[in-house]
Amino acid sequence: MEAGDVRRSDGRLLRRLRLAGALRERLGEDTVCALRPVVHGALLRAAGEDALHLGCRVIDVEIEAGHVAVRTEDNRVFRARVLVGADGAQSRVRELALGPPPLRYAGFTAWRGVARESARQLGDVTARQYLGAGLEAGVARASPDAVYWYLAIPAAAGGGRGQAHARGEAEAHLNGFDPFFRAVVEATAADDVRRDDVYDLDPLQAWGQGAVTLLGDAAHPMTPSAGQGAAQALEDAVALGEALGAAADPEAGLRRYEARRIPRVRTIVRLSRRNAAVLLTRSRAAQRLRNLAVRVLPAALLARQLAAIGPGEAAERPG
To answer: Does residue 22 sit in the same domain as residue 97?
Structure first.
């Protein structure tokens, strides 16, 4: 980000940060905020629409030596040398291949949305984070016109009234909130807001067996508190492609991919949990310490901490 604000939920400034140059120097590239439809569109163009078979609900996976067979609800069978379960936090492939490890409710609900035609309200700031009593929120410039925003609040699971009411539910939590953030939420179309109870999973020791492996949320659902869910899925994809491309035996390639990715992702899942505990704390003493740290920590240290979860070893080519 070129410049970012950290503020209290009422809008009072805690600190303004300029970290883009330091991050660019450490990472060797710019950091960007990209909306999921943009990323999905780029991937679809690269893969081609013919590569997709939509509406295929998996009901069975048979793992045999050297190949795998997948049966779908409409009784079709797909056979392949490799199966990659990239079917989300509630992964059916993970359940069939490894058993059903229990998801863990992270203790909070997140609302996320995109406000069209709102980017000009940010001025020269590309991102803003809000810290309050048991809540976190933020906005980021996602395109020349659009602003991505989020709001996270501790809550019991299953309390929502459905996605059609998501924006109204978010607005109900904004009494006394910064008027800028309220205006961004109010400028968001109801269809551009979603509400999710947040779950993660204790890091798995293995992601697959035989010709089956996992990728993204199927392998490592995590809280959004480090901003790394989609980023880690993309890193998985790069590492998987490289491992398979370098392996004469696909199954050996899958195990090499898992060995490369599991330690890194385990660290980020745990970091995300710690971040959530700090950002969403209800303790007044912890809130004061959190806000003090925001004010006084050296910018170079903050840049180093952010860069530490950048591509890192995932960008290295297998040797």
So the answer is: no
Per-residue pLDDT of the chain (319 residues; tens, 9 = 90+): 457 899 999 999 999 988 888 888 888 888 888 888 999 999 999 999 888 888 889 999 999 888 899 999 999 999 999 999 999 999 999 999 999 878 999 999 999 999 998 888 888 888 999 999 999 999 999 988 999 999 999 999 888 888 889 999 999 999 999 999 999 999 999 999 999 999 999 999 999 999 999 999 999 999 999 999 999 999 999 999 999 999 999 999 999 999 999 999 999 999 999 999 999 999 999 999 999 999 999 988 888 888 888 765 444 444 4
Domain span at residue 223 reads 36-103+201-282
The angle formed by the CA atoms of residues 250, 253 and 257, to the nearest 5 degrees, is 140
The Cα–Cα gap between 220 and 215 comes to: 8
Q: How far apart are the first and last CA of the chain?
A: 33
Q: Is residue 148 part of a domain?
A: yes
119 by DSSP, 3-state: which? helix
Residue environment code for 104-139, b if the CB has 16+ CB neighbours within 10 A, otherwise e: eebbbbbbbbbbeebbeebeebbbbbbbbebbbbbb
For residue 221, what are its two tokens? 């659902």
Does 266 fall in a domain?
yes
Encoding tokens for residue 8?
A: 């209290």
pTM metric for this prediction: 0.90
Number of domains in the chain: 2
